[in-house]
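Recall the central idea of this unit: under ordinary conditions, the amino acid sequence of a chain determines the structure it adopts. In this exercise we apply that idea directly, starting from the sequence alone.
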Amino acid sequence: MDDESTHEPTLEDFALAISLLVRRIRADAPPELREFSWTQKAVLTRLEKEGAMTSADLARAERIKPQSMSSAIASLVTMGLIERHAHPTDGRQMLIKLSAKGTKLRRTTREAKHAWLAQAITRLNKQEQALLFKAGALIARMVEDERD
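Accordingly, the structure predicted from this sequence is:
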């Protein structure tokens, strides 16, 4: 078996580590959230972070077809997790926002994810923690740069 200190990490190692982290975080999601599609989760997260948006703005932000976004929105409205409201300045458009139930679900989900992650990070020393947070910022920048 290779000594970990002499093994040069590869792109495959990095991708596997990210995949394992995502899988582990998903395992702590509330059971009802595990049944949601990627698009539904993305809508809830984006609305929590950015506030009310139009369906078209959500589709653009998530880089999916408007029809796919409409389907995700319809199902989330049916579940009572988001609400549609008239746009204050453009009567032709509807704004989509989190409902109280959707806000509660996002908070519960975030708390579950953060609880495990915070506990896992405490197993690292201070230097490793600092490096991990820097890597997180770089990963976020990589993903956002791709979206632009």
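The two ends are 42 Å apart (CA to CA).
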